[in-house]
Amino acid sequence: MTDIDVRARLALLGRSPTAADIAEALRSGGRIVSDVAVMALQQELVQDCEGIGVLEPLLDTPGLTDILVNGPDRVYMDCGRGPVLTPIRFSSAEDVRRLGVRLAASAGRRLDDGSPFVDARLGNGLRFHAVLEGICEPGPCLSLRVPARNPLSMADWESSGGLHPHVRAVLERVVDAKVSFLICGGTGSGKTTLLASMLSAVPEAERIVVVEDSRELDPAHPHVVRLESRPCNTEGAGLVTMSDLVRQALRMRPDRLVVGEVRGAELRDMLQALNTGHEGGCGTVHANSVVDVPARLEALAALGGLSRAAAHAQIAAALSVAIHVTCVGGRRRVSQIGVFRSDERGMVCVEQAWAWDGVRLQEGPGAEELARKIHLSDGRLAGQWSADGQRSPLPARALP
């Protein structure tokens, strides 16, 4: 009798098997029964039915951000310095598939040959994505994004070298002045982490309403309401889109409207909201740099039915600041800030206010405009900063 046969026999019990049940199933299959064999099979059964299976021990790794399964033989983990191969292996591709199907089902999603990929949030907060064999090589692939156990503050960003001291003060002023902003960057660059850090700096008296496709934002703030989109069920009913949620959020008296990640037609609703008196709105978007943000937003606005001229008019009136985050060699850094401006044709561009390479902070043409937007009295951002780290007189979190 194979392991699969033994498991099938135990499944017929209709309850959690005891050690005696496992020993009897092994004995009936002609297998050698020992304490070691019983305990090993019992542990495997627990892993198969609870948590994330054989991947569960990886969750105890300090600083873990991602678990990546490329078929049964290649399991990687990322602790912020890039994927590293682990010794964990699955018995077969079917075991990977079985885990994926179970995790999808636990989130109320479907994963099978008719629906070979899924993106969901698990009950323990993990962001889960799976693609089955047939459209994926080298077999079933699973991706798990692990939320930060301790949300980073702005001070944490600075102490880790990811945020220049002067820039920290500037970002805090962006929050205090209720300036609308977008954080841009690539996948895994730290956009959501930085957004959560900035939202944690929002005054406690303000109400934050967060709209997300899959919940990731967890700011350290006492008054946060989270709305999460939902796909339709197997009957094709129950769909709740990001656009639906943005419209509902506007009826919930938000002091800050947050769209966790702008990736589709919901941009139209977000821009309309920020043009109707909702200050301090913010979100994240994928873009290569701050100057590339307008082109990205124009493409997303087209999905919402906005013409190019209408999109640029809405963007110019709704958004003020773009913040770019990069991840190089596993180190996340706030590398650029830019300001939205319209040219003589009404087309929006983003002018760079400053750039930081981790050593030198350089001022750009948009510095004075950014200073004006955040009510900075001296009219300058980076002029008093150089590689020697001489401190600027700009006070943190103190609006003039």
Helices and strands, with pairings:
Layout: H1 3-11, H2 19-28, H3 35-49, E1 66-70, E2 75-78, E3 83-85, H4 93-106, E4 117-121, E5 127-131, E6 141-145, H5 154-159, H6 165-176, E7 181-185, H7 191-200, E8 208-212, E9 224-228, H8 242-250, E10 256-259, H9 266-274, E11 282-286, H10 293-303, H11 308-318, E12 321-328, E13 331-342, E14 348-356, E15 361-363, H12 367-373
Parallel strand pairs: 7-11, 7-12, 8-9, 8-10, 10-11
Antiparallel strand pairs: 1-2, 1-6, 2-3, 4-5, 5-6, 12-13, 13-14, 14-15
Helix pairs in contact: 1-2, 2-3, 8-9, 9-11, 10-11
Task: Describe, in plain words, how this protein is organized in 3D.
Helices cover 31% and strands 21% of the residues. It is an alpha/beta fold and 400 residues long. It has three domains: 1-50; 53-147, Beta-Lactamase (2-Layer Sandwich), CATH 3.30.450.370; 154-373, 3-Layer(aba) Sandwich (Rossmann fold), CATH 3.40.50.300. The strands form two sheets. The protein has a nine-stranded mixed beta sheet, sandwiched between helices. A six-stranded antiparallel beta sheet has the order 3-2-1-6-5-4, with helices on one face. Strand 14 (348-356) and strand 15 form a beta hairpin. Helix 1 packs across helix 2. The longest helix has 15 residues, at 35-49. The protein is elongated and about 85 Å long. The N and C termini lie far apart (78 Å). The model is unreliable at 377-400 (pLDDT under 50).
